[in-house]
Design goal:
Layout (H helix, E strand, L loop, with lengths): L2 E5 L3 H12 L3 E5 L5 H8 L2 E4 L3 H9 L2 H4 L3 E4 L4 E3 L5 E4 L6 H8 L4 E4 L6 H4 L11 E5 L2 H13 L7 E5 L4 H6 L4 H8 L11
Parallel strand pairs: 1-2, 1-3, 3-4, 4-7, 8-9
Antiparallel strand pairs: 5-6, 7-8
Helix pairs in contact: 3-5
Length: 198
């Protein structure tokens, strides 16, 4: 059992917290009340960033002290949204939210994952008709192994998880969000994920 703090209680944070609780972890979810994020981050061994990506860097910088020494799992996409509210561009072109977080929080082990799919797939990957891929990006091998274990607790088979390497690889998976609006316009909000076929 691991103490996990989830920052963000929307669809992504809510589904992740429920699934991780079912898997036997102790999960604290930070709501919007003053001090809730700091209290949750202080309590968790692992902190999951499920806040809207456009404001994540600022929010997490305010928690620098509480995140020191922790594993930060970043599942967000930092995008510029179009008139329809869907992603139209990247907030950090030539870089990524994952890289910016690691630069800003050198005492925290950042792992990027689960951002290349509709949120329902994060906790139910086997529901798709073919195997999806969950990518891992991060500098710390031990942290990535811990996150791999969490993904397996969420139903991800080991061979569905691909470690891409250092945190700089997060810019590739974050760029995949640009597929999302086109896929949604083409086929609606049906669950989907990026998958590497071999």
């Amino acid at each position: 059992m691991t103490m996990i703090a989830v920052l963000g209680n929307g669809r992504v944070g809510g589904s992740l917290s429920a699934a991780l609780t079912r898997a036997g972890h102790r999960v604290t979810v930070a709501d919007r009340s003053p001090g809730a994020a700091a209290d949750a981050a202080r309590a968790g061994r692992i902190v999951i960033n499920a806040t809207p990506g456009a404001g994540s860097l600022e929010r997490l910088l305010a928690l620098r002290e509480q995140l020191e020494g922790k594993i930060l799992v970043d599942v967000s996409n930092a995008t510029l949204d179009g008139p329809d509210g869907l992603p139209a561009g990247l907030l950090h072109p030539g870089s990524s939210l994952g890289e910016r977080l690691q630069e800003a929080l050198p005492g925290t082990r950042v792992v990027k994952t689960l951002n290349t799919m509709l949120h329902t797939v994060m906790t139910a990957p086997a529901a798709l008709t073919q195997a999806p891929t969950a990518f891992l990006s991060g500098e710390d091998e031990g942290a990535k192994q811990v996150v791999r274990g969490l993904l397996e607790d969420l139903g991800w088979q080991r061979d569905w998880i691909t470690d891409l390497g250092g945190i700089e690889t997060a810019r590739a998976v974050e760029a995949a969000v640009l597929f999302v609006p086109h896929v949604i316009r083409s086929s609606g909000f049906a669950p989907f994920a990026i998958s590497i076929a071999r």
